[in-house]
Amino acid sequence: MGLTRRISMLVKQKVNSLLNRFEDPKEVLDYSYQKQTELMIKLRRDIAEVVAAKKRLEMQKTKLKENIYKLEQQARSALDMNREDLARLALERKNMNIQQLLDVERQIADMEKEQVRLEELERRLSAKVEQFKLQKEVIKAKYTAAEAEVRIKESVTGISEEMAEVGMAIQRAEEKTEHMKARAMALDELMDSGVLTDYTTNKDMIERELQDVMMKDAVEKELEKLKKEMGREKDKVRERGRRGKRVEEGTEVEGEAGEVKEAESR
């Protein structure tokens, strides 16, 4: 087992040394920035999808309101034609639309909360990515300067390539550490964002039956309310008719009295 561990460690050292020799820290930093930028683009695309979904729900909300008003007018028209069965059916459909409207309004509120949360996350991540971009350029400039300085010192002091590789490996390890920290911070922020809320509802049988009973009760109450309102309106129409008739009769009586007086004066 001791020999196996030594061979494994030796292989890892050689592979790591080979990778470090061909690895360019500047390219690693640029690649990391590219991946962070792609994640930001994906996050903005998700925000746009949430906004579009909210707009669709708002359009559905407007349509439901129009249907509710239309069904109420249909119920009134049915009662005018003494079709109470049609009025009851229209009111049932109206209450179903009201329930759908309430569900849509809840979904819109949840969408707005999700949109605010994602937009805040996007602002924080955007600031971190921009900060990493500036830091990346500073590190690349330092690395380029260090490369030039090492080459100059190698030519002057005659330091062997192996010793220089050790120093550069240490420097690259530090740069890679900073890069991994920045990447880990970005990934942590994305992981904290969670997933979109599931807006589907699963109601059991008892809840559905209770809702049906409440809906039918609401329909009956509203039907009685419409009957009373339309009865009061008809009473008002009849009362106006009676008043008009009394005014006409009074006018005729006054006319006859005038004719009698005129005849007597002759």
Give a quick precis of the structure.
By secondary structure, this protein is mainly alpha-helical. The chain has helices spanning 2-22, 25-80, 84-157, 161-192, 205-265.
Walkthrough of the structure:
By secondary structure, this protein is an all-alpha fold. It folds into two domains: about 1-195, Helix Hairpins, CATH 1.10.287; about 205-265. It is about 90% helix and about 0% strand. It has helices at about 1-20, 25-80, 85-155, 160-190, 205-265. Helix 2 (about 25-80) packs antiparallel against helix 3 and helix 2 (about 25-80) packs parallel to helix 4 (about 160-190). The longest helix is centred in the middle third of the chain and has 74 residues, at about 85-155. It is rod-shaped, with a radius of gyration of 41 Å. About 10% of the residues are buried.
What is the count of β-strands? Answer: 0
- How far is it from the N-terminal to the C-terminal residue, by CA? 150 Å
Helix content: over 70%
What is the approximate shape?
rod-shaped
The assigned structural class equals: mainly alpha
Cα Rg: 41 Å
Reading off the top of the CATH hierarchy, the class of the largest domain is best stated as Mainly Alpha
Q: What is the residue-mean pLDDT, rounded to a whole number?
A: 75
Number of domains: 2
Strand content: under 5%
Report the sheet with the most strands, covering strand number, pairing sense and barrel closure. Answer: none
Low-confidence stretches: 194-203
Would you spell out the secondary-structure blueprint of this structure?
Layout: H1 2-22, H2 25-80, H3 84-157, H4 161-192, H5 205-265
Helix pairs in contact: 2-3, 2-4, 2-5, 3-4, 3-5
